[in-house]
Amino acid sequence: MQIEPRRWPGRVVPSTDADVDIAVESLCVRASWPDADRRWVRRLLEPWFAAGWSVDALLVAVDTRPDGTRQGRPRSRAQVAHEFLRARLRTWTADGAGLARPPLAGMSLGEWYRVNRRNAALHAPRSRPGLTSEGERARAESRALAHRRDPVERSREKGRRRQEVLDSLLVPGQEAPSFADSWRLVAELVPVPRVCSACGHVRNEVARPAHRVA
Q: Which portions of the sequence form the region Disordered (predicted)?
């Protein structure tokens, strides 16, 4: 798998010669060291890569010490890149006898590829089920209605569609109730108080039960 230096995964520990070349170039690009001698940088970093260090871990070591404090100022133009890198990594040697553990855990290129594929599958957009014929018709009507510029025409169209929905709820063979029918229904449900013509008071009439004939 050939990866461009700018796209090299920072947590991957290079294992082959080709991967080491790409990782070295990636570190120089990310550190903004265009004048760095890649051969000397590679010779310096080969044991670090063999010990499980990645590009991200090396960049952390360049900026900080093992205790978390800052290393110092960034590299100046007067400093040689690989000598500057050697001085910064010297604080990460275990008493000069060996290399310390990397500040960031690394992984192989195969592991990164599997994790990347899994994350891509988890975040991939899910396919939606297709619309029915009624749904397609409703969407087409909605889009056609949205493209109309006249707000009055859009309002009339909405009213027409609303009336069609209400008419579909009627019992077959019956007509929709009119405004007069609504008033008649209200008059039947709400009794109208009777006022005395002589005194003007409202009569409290109690409904008398109808006489039953034996």
A: 124-161
Rounded to an integer, what distance in angstroms lies between the CA atom of residue 202 and that of residue 197? 10
Are 90 and 98 within 8 A, CB to CB?
Answer: no
DSSP letter (8 states) at residue 54:
-
Separation of CA 162 from chain center:
36
Stated length of the chain = 214
Domain extents in the chain = 5-111
pLDDT at 72: 82
* DSSP tally for the chain: helices H, then strands E: 8, 2
Phi, psi of 78 (to 5 degrees): -75, -15
Q: How far apart are CA 206 and CA 98, in angstroms?
A: 108
HSE-CB for 184 with a 13 A CA cutoff: 5
The model's pLDDT over 70-81, given as tens digits with 9 standing for 90+, comes to: 988 888 888 899
> Among residues 87, 102, 84, which one has the least CA distance to residue 37?
84
Structure tokens at 46: 């080969």
pLDDT tens-place string over residues 157-212: 788 888 787 777 777 777 766 767 777 777 777 766 666 767 766 666 544 554 45
| Residue 7 CB coordination number (10 Å) | 8
Range 113-143 burial, b when 16+ CB lie within 10 A, else e: eeeeeeeeeeeeeeeeeeeeeeeeeeeeeee
